[in-house]
Amino acid sequence: MQFPEWESTYLNILSDMGFDRDSDENSARMLKAVTLNSDLVLDDVFNDIIKDTVTIVGNGKNLEADIDRKGLKGTIISSGSAVERITRLGITPDLIVTDMDGEIRTQIKANNNGAIAVLHAHGDNFELIQRYAPEFKGRVILTTQSTPDNVLSNYGGFTDGDRAACLAKHFGAKCIRLIGFDFEDPFPKEGMDPEIKRKKLLWAKKILLGLEDNVTKLDF
Fold this sequence. Notes:
220 residues, sialyltransferase cstii, chain A, 9-stranded parallel β-sheet, 17% strand, globular
């Protein structure tokens, strides 16, 4: 998804959630500043990594059961918060899409072990960016919630999971499989208002359903 296609949805999210674009862009500037010495790679690397089938791993309570029932196929993209759990199962994802919350040390280790980390900036994670982004020593790509530039990309999406799906679609995935997604009864995040979490998941589901016209198969 190109940013002009995404921008109207982004503006609607800002309005609905009461978020501030300036805060998103401040975080994006911070992300660029603290990764000057990181192993930044061009996103054309995805042309070789994103296969026709992509499995996106979320952090729902049903994750392990979903893996047992559906299996993992094609390119494996994990949301940041799910990396700890799939690592315990002996799985290293191809990509990690993260705004640097969750169990960050496991994400950093997986990046060091070969997973490309797609580090995301938005208005709520300014301090997490300062603290953790420089610690990713493997290959990284930077994304922003707002306007992209020659360093920051934006493929669309709002939460780690649906941003991963937008990325996969952008780079040609024909079947996007969703593992461990639970829009009704998610794990609570410490310090997050449950109502904000609920609204975020409504947007995530809406964005994912909007991809169905653009991929051969979207498998929930």
